[in-house]
Amino acid sequence: MEYIYASLLLHSAGKEITEDAVKAVLSAAGVEVEDARVKALVAALEGVDIEEAIEKAAMPVAAAAAPAAAPAEEPKEEKKEEKKEEDTTAAAAAGLGALFG
Description:
The chain is mainly alpha-helical. The chain has a domain at about 1-55: Arc Repressor Mutant, subunit A (Orthogonal Bundle), CATH 1.10.10.1410. It contains five helices and no strands. The longest helix is centred in the C-terminal third of the chain and has 36 residues, at about 65-100. The relative contact order is 0.07.
């Protein structure tokens, strides 16, 4: 992975990804450099549009808001039921008051 990170670092810095540049980054990071891996990486990245590859690899965040919307409706229904119970209790109290009033 260090080799890929080195190439991404060079790309984000606007530098050309060459064998010498990758070796320099890896050496600066204290990584023991394998020439064959560096050559393979540079050869594999030749002609690749890294920006396009990053955009394609980036996965959009799944819409998790849809399940959250359903619980928001439930408290509204509970409030309506509570109001109905309060109205029924108030009506019953008023009716009893009329009996004794």
